[in-house]
Task: inverse folding
């Protein structure tokens, strides 16, 4: 990591509100080339929202998001497209096009953004699918393969253009432990071998500590803690401690019931209906 | 293209045939009282070309393909596929809407012409088997009664309907929110809106053709 080089991602004072609810509050961080940043935090803490701001599909209420030194918060759709060709994104569900086969899904960005011949593209598709352990699945439709396989195809598609930067939303949830290790090793290999930068949203702690060079923990829309995996592991912050050790008791409010809700005195009490609603509600 | 056009053909054929038969029988019923059965082919032909052909085929295509497009795009929206396209720097409008738009713009008028043929064939069936026409007489009268403008006005309507139907369907699909329920609502809304818009436009276009041409 070279901190003198301009950061790949620069987020400054990012604030995002939905109505009067603040989902992201004053988020600032940098990601440098070759780093693997893991963003963690409980469900509904704003992880996915933060990720959507970095890929330009949501606009911040205030603050700035720079990718490759270019401000994407104020960019027009056409210009964002140019930036997006330089990064890959793995969606939580894989987000494969159901009408195309696995192979066509992986080939899609290659057909759209490169001048390569069909034979060359077929070769690349084979190679990318091999990387995620799905050789021979080219001709199946997404609904003929399992959720974990879809996710791996999504990863192959995200890597199709050999991006400098990879965003992953929960890359290992729904994968068995062995496939989790394979995906993690792939991320590490790309980070070390090709100096790919990765931003991974995850709450799989085993995987997070395996791949991260730096970690950020979000809570209530703010950064609770950030540092190297070692710093996070030895953090004395009780919220971080509770989260990485997966304990039910601790300072993180769970909103499981009205009693518990009131028990946490630092959370402003709300009417009962609202507390139940918040329990079911997941930030998009 | 295949879905909107070719696979809709049997349904279009059946509808058009029924309409042709019905038109001929109704026309025969009224015209018989005037002793003017000779005008049945005229009526079938002109009504089909100018009005029933474009409108009824559009109704079928709205119910069949408009709803399918809205549901398909809506499902893609809720399953993050549209967002995935955007993030891959692929414009969803270019990639998804444009081909459907072109398919509709070609296929609806094509289906209408096809439906017109079948409808006229339905009229022929009634005239030949119930009204003592011979085939040549029917065809001759039908062709004499219609001029090219009857065909063109029907085609203009059909092209405008195609534009309305696909615009409403794509718009409804791409703006779906709220999972499976949202997809259902958007599909229904697209059918209802497209039907209303199509019928109102039909009245307006007929008015324009009637008064201005």
Result:
């Amino acid at each position: 990591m070279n901190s003198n080089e301009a950061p790949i991602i620069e987020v400054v004072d990012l604030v995002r509100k939905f109505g009067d609810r603040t989902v992201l509050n004053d988020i600032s961080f940098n990601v440098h080339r070759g780093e693997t940043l893991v963003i963690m935090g409980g469900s509904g803490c704003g992880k996915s929202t933060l990720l959507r701001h970095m890929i330009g599909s949501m606009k911040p209420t205030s603050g700035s998001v720079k990718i490759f030194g270019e401000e994407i918060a104020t960019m027009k759709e056409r210009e964002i497209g140019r930036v997006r060709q330089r990064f890959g994104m793995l969606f939580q569900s894989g987000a494969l096009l159901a009408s195309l086969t696995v192979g066509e899904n992986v080939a899609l960005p290659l057909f759209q953004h490169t001048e390569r011949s069909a034979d060359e593209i077929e070769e690349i598709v084979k190679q990318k699918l091999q990387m995620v352990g799905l050789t021979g699945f080219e001709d199946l439709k997404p609904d003929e393969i399992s959720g974990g396989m879809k996710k791996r195809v999504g990863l192959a598609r995200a890597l199709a253009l050999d991006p400098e930067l990879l965003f992953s939303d929960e890359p290992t949830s729904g994968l068995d432990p062995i496939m989790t290790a394979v995906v993690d090793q792939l991320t590490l290999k790309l980070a070390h071998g090709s100096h790919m930068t990765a931003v991974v949203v995850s709450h799989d702690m085993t995987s997070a500590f395996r791949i991260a060079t730096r970690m950020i923990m979000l809570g209530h829309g703010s950064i609770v803690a950030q540092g190297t995996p070692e710093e996070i592991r030895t953090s004395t912050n009780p919220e971080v401690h509770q989260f990485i050790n997966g304990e039910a008791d601790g300072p993180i409010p769970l909103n499981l019931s009205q009693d518990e809700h009131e028990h946490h005195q630092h959370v402003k009490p709300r009417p009962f209906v609202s507390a139940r609603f918040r329990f079911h509600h997941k930030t998009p | 293209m295949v879905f909107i056009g070719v696979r809709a053909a049997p349904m279009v054929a059946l509808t058009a045939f029924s309409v042709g038969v019905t038109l001929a029988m109704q026309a025969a019923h009224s015209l018989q009282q005037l002793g003017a059965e000779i005008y049945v082919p005229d009526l079938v032909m002109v009504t089909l070309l100018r009005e029933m052909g474009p409108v009824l085929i559009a109704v079928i295509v709205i119910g069949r393909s408009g709803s399918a497009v809205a549901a398909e795009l809506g499902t893609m929206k809720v399953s993050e596929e549209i967002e995935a396209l955007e993030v891959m720097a692929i414009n969803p409008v270019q990639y998804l809407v444009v081909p459907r738009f072109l398919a509709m713009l070609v296929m609806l008028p094509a289906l209408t012409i096809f439906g017109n043929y079948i409808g006229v064939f339905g009229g022929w069936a009634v005239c030949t088997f119930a009204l003592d026409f011979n085939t040549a007489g029917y065809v001759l009268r039908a062709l004499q009664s219609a001029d090219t403008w009857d065909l063109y006005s029907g085609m203009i309507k059909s092209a405008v309907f195609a534009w309305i139907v696909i615009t409403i369907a794509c718009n409804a699909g791409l703006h779906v929110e709220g999972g499976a329920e949202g997809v259902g609502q958007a599909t229904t809304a697209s059918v209802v809106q497209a039907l209303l818009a199509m019928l109102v436009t039909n009245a307006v276009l007929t008015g324009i053709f009637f008064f201005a041409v």
Summary: Chain A has one domain: 9-236.
